[in-house]
Amino acid sequence: MRVLVTGGAGYIGSATVQALLAKGHDVEILDNFSTGHRKALADVPLHEGTLLDDSFVSSVFANPFDAVIHFAAFSLVGESVTDPLKYYRNNVAGSLNLIKSVADGGAKRFVFSSTAAVYGEPDKMPIVESTPTVPVNPYGRTKLAIEYCLGDAASAVGFPAVALRYFNAAGAVPGLGEDHEPETHLIPRLLRSLVDENVSFKIFGNDYDTPDGTCIRDYIHIADLAVAHIKAIEAVDEIGLTQINLGTGDGQSVQEIVECASRITGREISPAITSRRAGDPPRLVAANDKAKSILGWIPKKSDLDSIITDAWNWHSNNPDGYNDRG
Ligand code: UDP
To answer: Helix, strand or coil for residue 10?
Structure first.
């Protein structure tokens, strides 16, 4: 298939481009490098520009695509709270331009990179796709707004579209890893603290109602996420319009991650425990039955050892990440 990947220079986007190319797809990337990395770019046609520029976006679709996979978005929860309009403008308004081009015939199918943040803080675990969507921060609300917009446009025009709701993306694939600025996520912060003395790592609270008191999340390897996107573009014609969780169905605590990282890196890691980070629910775990039954997707690399081994390989070989900050 001829596939346009927006955000193809980003963490999950670049891994998906790598997997699409390995499967023989014909890929083009749209990115503005606001958070992506030129060093993460595959050698494929690049459309450099912003989704906010509607004439640029429609020009990208001059030659229609078989599928669009839409990753490009801002994704820092804390920043979305302090600067929500930046998130609504970039994520929602940018996506509107993209969806409009697809609705106008620019592509046959659409796969959207959504998030578990659309669910907010549900009480019942694991989280199924019919769990009410009550996002608790602007980031989650922008993703949910795009899901609505995409769903309405897809129904009106009749193109198949699927929203993939990821849980905690983690790990690395050959040559491509996690490098955000600022980095807020657990695994990259923990591993970077072992290779960069300027990065400190602390556990945010050990008084949660979980077996060891630290928060539990469902970590999913980006190699598995990439496979799910390929399965989604291949299956979306039959699926129609839907939302699918991407997680393992199993959760690991912060403490378990620290212990696993200590074992795999051979370093003694004994982080300080600080107070809870605002807005962290104690436990978020996906039900992934729908992904299994509809996409035939089974995570293969998302055991914690594989995730930490691959992430450590990336961070220890790239202590400054992509080293492309100004
Ligand atoms: N966390 C932590 N120290 C850090 C970063 C994260 O203890 O430096 C904890 C965080 O409080 C949460 C878990 O690790 O309980 C996962 O956080 P992350 O930001 O990776 O993902 P989230 O689930 O918040 O999107």
So the answer is: coil
Q: Which residues line ligand 1 (CB under 6 A)?
A: 168, 184-186, 189, 201-204, 215, 217, 254, 277, 280
| pTM summary value | 0.97
Element (H, E) at 207: none
Looking at the domain covering 2-170+218-246, what would its CATH class be? alpha beta
128 token code pair: 């199924």
Residue 243 in tokens: 């939302």
Catalytic residues: 139
Pocket test for ligand 1, best of 280, 285, 304, 307 (most atoms within 8 A of CB): 280
Q: pLDDT tens across 25-53, in order?
A: 999 999 999 999 999 999 999 999 999 99
Domain ranges of the chain: 2-170+218-246
Residues comprising the chain, all counted: 326
- pLDDT, tens digit (0-9, with 9 covering 90-100), for 155-196: 999 999 999 999 999 999 999 999 999 999 999 999 999 999
